[in-house]
Amino acid sequence: MPLNLACKPAVLCTFLCLTVSLLSVVKAEDPYRFFDWNVTYGFIYPLGVRQQGILINGQFPGPDIHSVTNDNLIINVYNSLDEPFLLSWNGIQQRRNSYEDGVFGTTCPIPPGKNFTYILQVKDQIGSFYYFPSLGFHKAAGGFGGIRILSRPRIPVPFDDPAGDYTILIGDWYMSNHTKLKAILDSGRKLPFPDGILINGRGRGGYSLTVEQGKTYRLRISNVGLQNSLNFRIQNHKMKLVEVEGTHTLQTTYSSLDVHVGQSYSVLFTADQPGQDYYIVVTSRFTAPVVLNTTGILHYSNSAGPVSGPFPGGPTTQIDWSLNQARSIRTNLTASGPRPNPQGSYHYGMINTTRTIIVANSAGQVNGKQRYGVNSVSFIAPDTPMKLADYFKIQGVFKENSISDRPYGGGLYLDTSVLTLPYRAFVEIVFQNNEDIVQSWHLDGYSFFVVGMDGGQWTTASRNQYNLRDGVSRCTIQVYPKAWTAIYIPLDNVGMWNLRTEFWARQYLGQQFYLRVYTDSTSLRDEYPIPKNALLCGRASGRHTRPL
């Protein structure tokens, strides 16, 4: 969409300078797409009760970002809130450029009444992702939207173009203001159970999708909620999975799909039923005895009547059902990804791992308040983003390896947890979940190969059941209760990268840390320099970046 910055000449001047300067670090032939966003508060009524939401250009949810592999996205964000604000880009890898990641460990918040221009490149990526506000508990007020990255025209896609391509944002939702929820957490208490589920910002019966009989459509489904795994289904229709977070998958057909918090899936479905209306259903998983649910409407253009009767049931507490479905999601080895070569041409299973990291989540009390942690460390944000402290060599902001690479069984304690790993290492990470809830983990800056998951405790013998051939490559993965999940990651992206739970109250209260992928090299081939327009805060305030 074109920029309209006539009312902000200073912003426009800075913006144009940034655009020109960007040519020094990205290929000039890659297209540019420009976005101008104003972030405001506004009243919304998703569950029938008025509450304060976060809007982008007056929209809830925010506008979709449509792009093509290697596009440069220039996104000018003006913060009209009364508090600092940041957007992060779930699944966008920010190749060599963690400064733009939009989490506090890498990026200073946008002050109220100010703007910041994100300069992103969707380098060597395709697929379905989303953006969201990363500070505080803003995510509970909105500010999220879909991201789609299409393949370049000369790259084959393993299915025909659909008749329509739609973003479906699902998630659990509170009717309370995000400031009230944050205050509950700050006081050391747990949040109550969510009040409902939204489909594209609407409650029960509020969302509808019109289709033509006989045609096939693509749905890009993302769980942008705060804690719960959700099951998605369409009455009397089958869904064919075709893509997961940037990877074309084996085209397996499902009657319903578990979408864990933070995850994104693309499915195809054909409007092959008699002409009438059908339920779109989303229900919570693993929350019994209370099960949240909501419905939308799939409306045939030749519909003879509305939906009637109860909506179709789905799985509720069945972990084995979900685990088996997860194991069935595999990479289509012969399909092209963002490049013309087949996705299976990278043989991850033939590479020796250089290090094993075991990540164990835990809950407990610190100083009489509820906290959550990883390997006994509950993360606390410093006064300066760690990436800026690293760049400017500011002492005392964080310590390298302030978190162990495996659990040692001690009680929770507070620290700014950073684990340094060498560039180009090939690492095995095991997520061990000894709690009674489903965990969902996300790693910024990377896609990783899911090689195994099972119940019980992981041991070295668990490697015997690894999928070393066609495990799906993605950026967010679930870990079932009293179970483990293992991934392989080639550390080919220098930077400071957030590894976090997507259970947002837990993330806010410490269940996260940062991977510092480091090299001594100063080459642009390994990492871009700090952006010329980087906001500087904390102990980095007043330090110059580079001359314009």
From TrEMBL:
<dbReference type="GO" id="GO:0016491">
    <property type="term" value="F:oxidoreductase activity"/>
</dbReference>
<dbReference type="InterPro" id="IPR008972">
    <property type="entry name" value="Cupredoxin"/>
</dbReference>
<feature type="signal peptide">
    <location>
        <begin position="1"/>
        <end position="28"/>
    </location>
</feature>
<keyword id="KW-0732">Signal</keyword>
<keyword id="KW-0325">Glycoprotein</keyword>
<dbReference type="Pfam" id="PF07732">
    <property type="entry name" value="Cu-oxidase_3"/>
</dbReference>
<comment type="similarity">
    <text>Belongs to the multicopper oxidase family.</text>
</comment>
<dbReference type="InterPro" id="IPR034275">
    <property type="entry name" value="CuRO_3_AO-like"/>
</dbReference>
<dbReference type="InterPro" id="IPR034273">
    <property type="entry name" value="CuRO_1_AAO-like"/>
</dbReference>
<feature type="domain" description="Plastocyanin-like">
    <location>
        <begin position="39"/>
        <end position="152"/>
    </location>
</feature>
<feature type="domain" description="Plastocyanin-like">
    <location>
        <begin position="165"/>
        <end position="303"/>
    </location>
</feature>
<dbReference type="Pfam" id="PF00394">
    <property type="entry name" value="Cu-oxidase"/>
</dbReference>
<dbReference type="Pfam" id="PF07731">
    <property type="entry name" value="Cu-oxidase_2"/>
</dbReference>
<dbReference type="GO" id="GO:0005507">
    <property type="term" value="F:copper ion binding"/>
</dbReference>
<dbReference type="InterPro" id="IPR045087">
    <property type="entry name" value="Cu-oxidase_fam"/>
</dbReference>
<dbReference type="InterPro" id="IPR011707">
    <property type="entry name" value="Cu-oxidase-like_N"/>
</dbReference>
<dbReference type="InterPro" id="IPR011706">
    <property type="entry name" value="Cu-oxidase_C"/>
</dbReference>
<protein>
    <submittedName>
        <fullName>L-ascorbate oxidase</fullName>
    </submittedName>
</protein>
<feature type="domain" description="Plastocyanin-like">
    <location>
        <begin position="383"/>
        <end position="521"/>
    </location>
</feature>
<dbReference type="InterPro" id="IPR001117">
    <property type="entry name" value="Cu-oxidase_2nd"/>
</dbReference>
